[in-house]
Design a protein that fits this description.
heterodimer, A: 120 residues, mainly beta, globular, B: 113 residues, 7-stranded mixed β-sheet, 4-stranded antiparallel β-sheet, 0% helix, 48% strand
């Protein structure tokens, strides 16, 4: 079974850091682009970042550029999101998602998400 | 960045009737190289992750009922549910993946009238 399982969410103070993980199984992780997408409570979906299957290309939404870093460890079948200088507006459920084939196109397989709350 | 604007923000349709959701992009998402529209549609129910319904603007994802269809090209797109079922109550989002910086529409909440 194909699975994406996010972890690492929790409560963090403004200015703090958090590292999210996404454990992938059931497919050849090293051949897929991956994404992080977030959803603030009661709000819509917001794309956060993409990373190429070999980690050589990364793209970020402007609001997180310089604060968040997407990375992956293909040997561990894991995707990460390092979040620094967190702000209240970063409070959201964070989903990891898989993009088809070796292409940067539509996310088609999603995890259940992990909640990040930034509050003092 | 490409801005995606959906209309309406919310919609109430009777069971068995047609539901239509529109999505407009601030610039064309049609690729000249492969003649494909880089536009997808997602359904999200409360407490669940998004579910892919349509990609390349009109290709139905495997397992999606055929009452869901997508149309449009360039900057204007439509998701149509031909005969609304109770299980279709959800929020629907369009997504452009033409740019390396993806953008979603703001969402359309679909309810039963």
């Amino acid at each position: 079974d194909v699975q994406l399982v996010e972890s690492g969410g929790g409560l963090v103070q403004p200015g703090g850091s958090l590292r999210l993980s996404c454990a992938a199984s059931g497919f050849t992780f090293s051949t897929y682009w991956m994404s992080w997408v977030r959803q603030a409570p009661g709000k819509g979906l917001e794309w956060v970042a993409n990373i190429k299957y070999d980690g050589s290309e990364r793209y970020y939404v402007d609001s997180v550029k310089g604060r968040f870093t997407i990375s992956r460890d293909n040997a561990k079948n894991s995707l990460y999101l390092q979040m620094n200088s967190l702000r209240g507006e970063d409070t959201a459920v964070y989903y990891c998602a898989r993009l088809p084939g070796g292409t940067v196109t539509y996310p088609f397989s999603w995890g259940q998400g992990t909640l990040v709350t930034v509050s003092s | 960045d490409i801005v995606m604007t959906q209309s309406p923000d919310s919609l109430a349709v009777s069971l068995g009737e047609r539901a239509t959701i529109n999505c407009k992009s601030s610039q064309s998402v049609l690729s000249r190289s492969n003649n494909k529209n880089y536009l997808g549609w997602y359904q999200q129910k409360p407490g669940q992750p998004p579910k892919l319904l349509i990609y390349w603007a009109s290709t139905r994802e495997s397992g999606v009922p055929d009452r869901f269809s997508g149309s449009g090209s360039g900057t204007d797109f439509t998701l149509t549910i031909s005969s609304l079922q109770a299980e279709d109550v959800a929020v629907y989002y369009c997504l452009q993946y033409y740019s390396t910086h993806f953008t979603f529409g703001q969402g359309t909440k679909l309810e039963i009238k």
